[in-house]
TrEMBL record, chains A, B, C:
<feature type="transmembrane region" description="Helical">
    <location>
        <begin position="91"/>
        <end position="108"/>
    </location>
</feature>
<keyword id="KW-0472">Membrane</keyword>
<feature type="domain" description="Glycine transporter">
    <location>
        <begin position="94"/>
        <end position="166"/>
    </location>
</feature>
<keyword id="KW-1003">Cell membrane</keyword>
<comment type="similarity">
    <text>Belongs to the UPF0126 family.</text>
</comment>
<feature type="transmembrane region" description="Helical">
    <location>
        <begin position="114"/>
        <end position="139"/>
    </location>
</feature>
<feature type="transmembrane region" description="Helical">
    <location>
        <begin position="33"/>
        <end position="54"/>
    </location>
</feature>
<feature type="transmembrane region" description="Helical">
    <location>
        <begin position="151"/>
        <end position="170"/>
    </location>
</feature>
<protein>
    <submittedName>
        <fullName>Trimeric intracellular cation channel family protein</fullName>
    </submittedName>
</protein>
<feature type="transmembrane region" description="Helical">
    <location>
        <begin position="176"/>
        <end position="197"/>
    </location>
</feature>
<keyword id="KW-0812">Transmembrane</keyword>
<feature type="transmembrane region" description="Helical">
    <location>
        <begin position="66"/>
        <end position="84"/>
    </location>
</feature>
<feature type="domain" description="Glycine transporter">
    <location>
        <begin position="9"/>
        <end position="81"/>
    </location>
</feature>
<dbReference type="Pfam" id="PF03458">
    <property type="entry name" value="Gly_transporter"/>
</dbReference>
<dbReference type="InterPro" id="IPR005115">
    <property type="entry name" value="Gly_transporter"/>
</dbReference>
<keyword id="KW-1133">Transmembrane helix</keyword>
<feature type="transmembrane region" description="Helical">
    <location>
        <begin position="6"/>
        <end position="26"/>
    </location>
</feature>
Amino acid sequence: MSLTFIQGLELSGTFAFAISGATAAINKSYDVIGLLALAFVTAIGGGTIRDLLIGATPVAWMTDELSNTAIIVAAVIAALFFSYVKILQRWLNIFDAIGLGMFTITGINKGIAAGLPIPVCVALGVITGAFGGLLRDVITGEQPILFTREIYAVASIAGGSLYVLASVFTPLPGGFVQSISVAVIVGIRLLSLRYNWQLPRLRQ
Amino acid sequence: MSLTFIQGLELSGTFAFAISGATAAINKSYDVIGLLALAFVTAIGGGTIRDLLIGATPVAWMTDELSNTAIIVAAVIAALFFSYVKILQRWLNIFDAIGLGMFTITGINKGIAAGLPIPVCVALGVITGAFGGLLRDVITGEQPILFTREIYAVASIAGGSLYVLASVFTPLPGGFVQSISVAVIVGIRLLSLRYNWQLPRLRQ
Amino acid sequence: MSLTFIQGLELSGTFAFAISGATAAINKSYDVIGLLALAFVTAIGGGTIRDLLIGATPVAWMTDELSNTAIIVAAVIAALFFSYVKILQRWLNIFDAIGLGMFTITGINKGIAAGLPIPVCVALGVITGAFGGLLRDVITGEQPILFTREIYAVASIAGGSLYVLASVFTPLPGGFVQSISVAVIVGIRLLSLRYNWQLPRLRQ
């Protein structure tokens, strides 16, 4: 089996998302079932919500053996090497940003293929990239990080809007547009972490 | 663009639901992403769950530009004029009741069109009218208002049952039956607010 | 109307699941709407998520009058005889275990019919048997029992794996394989309750 570069990028994102779910499970003292379930929900939740909304069933993860394997491996690694996972958080952030970028593009492509309006396609990109983490937070009873702190959805919206506009309105080759858009998402996300950019929170 | 009266009623309901979601986001100090997301989830969550359950995909909001615009406008207004929103709560309750009434009927009509049993159609009405608010409460970590205090689902069930029974078993014209049924829902809901009717809560 | 033995087993499981949802509603001092809704969500939530994931809509409960009646009866009984429900918990555990077993098999059969990979079929079994309770816990704001304490999903996975492997790889008659598999699930579940087996919880 040989992976393409794009598959490798997607897998590294899936892996990082699953680690994030597994870490949340460990922080809540879940058992091994909770560990696996939360790793899966975090990694494939966004794509699953997207597929349900557009009616693409059976949903994608059910036939994506490679991703499912990556999620199980991530859960096992998180359980066995939890203290190292914390140390390697900086690297995981990079993989997570790549996942956000790749998943955003996947979601948008499915929206375009379904003939949906451009803003809805961008929304599907954000849902694909970020709603797995939302489900993770709702299940564990935490306030959603997606809604309260970090430049996460904003990075997805920025790169996603660039992607969909360039795809629909310019003759630029798809691979080029996708590369630039993912780079924009990863760049905004990592810069926001590096310089601690945060969205203002609303006050009463 | 000219709106029909019915579209206007539905839009005022969507607007009120979105304000309710945006208000919850502000109360939780969410950021602008959380504001928009919660306004959307509250306004279109019920209809989305209904569409998923009956397999009507892509779900309705994706192609409903008018509603989506109303939701964004509501979120912006809630963020900019939060203190006024509180003062205008009484008016918002009226719009919210209208939304509950209109959405209940929409849900029931979709159930009838799908050939589902009458009680299930009524359930789809309640889901359409009230489960957006349920999602809002689950995401923000609040106990669901729908299940704990107010005469909300009961109003939807009363008017919805009237509607489905009159639609299926009487030759009365559809527009007439719908008007009466929405009026019953709005009436029960607003009277319950005015006189502080509450369902008894169950005790151990 | 005469019930088959299998229908009787499924109904007793649905009944026990609904009681569990109704009990949670009463513990949270929900009103009668919350009682009914939580009984339904707990009893049919797992099968509904399964049907959504594989695209089997309208979802099963909408045309399953018998189950819906059992759920309403269970909710009424729980509300009227709450103190007795507590005393009868041991019997309810047996019905609940039977429900877990029967629902696991139903979920797996739907996965096999949809041509999904074997591990995904087992996952659909667990989802069908156990995710109604997960929804119950998320809505009421409790940490999911499914992920934190009991031998529940593990029983479903053990019996479910046995079922799917025997169904696919042996010529044994379906009814026989199903009976053994349900017995394994019920047995593991009840033994774990009797002897207080628990999965180890993960620690940081």
